[in-house]
Structure formats: C-alpha cells, structure tokens
C-alpha cells in the first residue's frame, strides 16, 4: 500500500513538473532574394522551442498561416515555410516569363509577435505586406490564439459561450463607437456588411488591454478606410468568454 502511494506521488510530481514547464521562444528569421530586381521574401516570427505538444501546435499554426499568405498556385501545396517561399518566387518567375514588360517584382514581408500571455492563453499576432502587382500592396493581420493548458489552438467559434449572444453585444458596442443609430441599417453610414447584417470579423485576438475585434481592409469597408477595430475590456466581455481573463 505504501509502495503504491509512493508511485502515485512520484507520478503526480512528474506530471506537475511537465505542466509547469515554461514555453520559450526564439526568433525565426528567413530572407530570400535572388537578385537586385527579383522578388523577395522576408519573414521574422517567433518559434516555440522544443517538441512539446504546445510548441508543435504553435509552430504548425504559424507555418500554415505563412504558407497560406504565400500560396497563389492552387495546383501545388507547400509542406513547410521554405517550400512556401520557393513557390512564391517560382509563381512570380513564371508570370514574368509570360509578361516580361508588365511584371514588377513581388514582395512578401511577414512579421510576428507575442501580444498576450497570461499563463493560460497565448496570442500571437502576424502581420503581412504582400505586393503581387497592381496599384498597391495588401496589408493583413492574423491573430492566433492558443489554450496553453491543453495545448490547442483556439478558433474563433471556440472563444464564446454563445457566439450569437456575443455578436449581439458586439453590435451594440460597434454601433455606439461608429455612431450608427440602433434602429438604422448597419450599413447606413457607409459600411459594407454583406446581407446588411452585422457579423464578427475573421480576426479576434486577446491583448493586454482587452479582446480585439479586427476587421481587415475590404472586410466591411473600403481599402481607403483601413482596418476597423473594436477593443472590448475584459471586465465587459468575460461573461461571454469560455476562458475569462482577469483584468
């Protein structure tokens, strides 16, 4: 009986140490430019160190997001960041061979930072600038949220106890912020919500100041309007969140 108790105590101690093991990061910096007038890619993002489930979950999520930004040819799928970079450069070179006088070099710049970590929730913000021709490049932002305790990525639908209830609350705050009367159409002041119905943005991230709703350019307004954001203090939204955040 004593031996069994000792074994259980030892196992508990081991599991506790593994749970408390701190997650650490190192910078991942990749740059590729083959010539002065060639397309180029520059990437600077955090990389989780180690082979834990959480580290692998984070690194895979970052890699997949970067690959999706760099992918223009749907016939092939890059398996890692290096392949994604090579595919980006190759797609431009193929275009240049077809239209040598009309093809300006492409550019991809992707940066990432840890913007929130309270021991339970970790949020990494990725920002990209992509130029693949046209009048201007495109800036994009992605928030990757993770539950550190169970080593999983938190997708938008998993953040709320009731997405519908939170959406109704967010619409009230949005209307107040943007001076849209409660009885007016959501697009009455110039926004471009599809079906003229308020909806949450694709990007929602935890920050030190509150839950950030981030609408990309083009998502609900013109490109000239830039991103539209709504910052909600945790004390106001904790009742809607599955994982409450202590302010």
Automatic annotation (TrEMBL):
Q: Where do the DUF3298 domain residues begin and end?
A: 159-235
What PROSITE patterns does the record point to?
PROKAR_LIPOPROTEIN (PS51257)
Which residue intervals define the domain Deacetylase PdaC in the entry?
A: 36-138
Pfam families per the UniProt record, alphabetical = DUF3298, PdaC
User: What superkingdom does the record give?
Assistant: Bacteria
- What InterPro entries does the record tag this protein with? DUF3298, PdaC, PdaC/RsiV-like_sf
What is the protein name given in its UniProt record?
A: Deacetylase PdaC domain-containing protein
Organism source for this protein? Maribacter sedimenticola
């Amino acid at each position: 009986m004593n031996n069994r108790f000792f074994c259980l105590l030892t196992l508990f101690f081991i599991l506790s140490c593994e749970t408390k093991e701190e997650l650490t990061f190192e910078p991942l910096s990749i740059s590729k430019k083959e010539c002065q007038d060639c397309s180029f890619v520059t990437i600077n993002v955090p990389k989780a160190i180690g082979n834990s489930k959480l580290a692998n979950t984070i690194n895979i999520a970052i890699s997949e997001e970067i690959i999706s930004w760099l992918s223009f040819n749907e016939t092939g799928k890059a398996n890692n960041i290096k392949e994604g970079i090579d595919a980006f450069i190759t797609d431009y070179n193929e275009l240049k061979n077809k239209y040598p006088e009309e093809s300006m070099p492409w550019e991809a710049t992707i940066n990432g930072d840890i913007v929130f970590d309270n021991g339970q929730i970790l949020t990494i913000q990725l920002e990209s600038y992509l130029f693949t021709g046209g009048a201007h490049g495109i800036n994009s932002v992605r928030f990757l949220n993770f539950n550190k305790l169970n080593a999983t990525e938190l997708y938008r639908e998993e953040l709320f106890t009731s997405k519908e209830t939170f959406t109704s609350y967010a619409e009230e705050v949005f209307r107040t912020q943007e001076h849209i009367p409660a009885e007016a159409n959501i697009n009455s002041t110039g926004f471009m919500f599809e079906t003229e119905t308020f909806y949450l943005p694709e990007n929602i991230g935890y920050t030190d100041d509150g839950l950030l709703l981030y609408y990309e350019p083009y998502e609900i307004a013109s490109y000239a309007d830039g991103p539209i954001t709504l910052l909600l203090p945790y004390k106001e939204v904790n009742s809607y969140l599955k994982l409450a955040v202590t302010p």
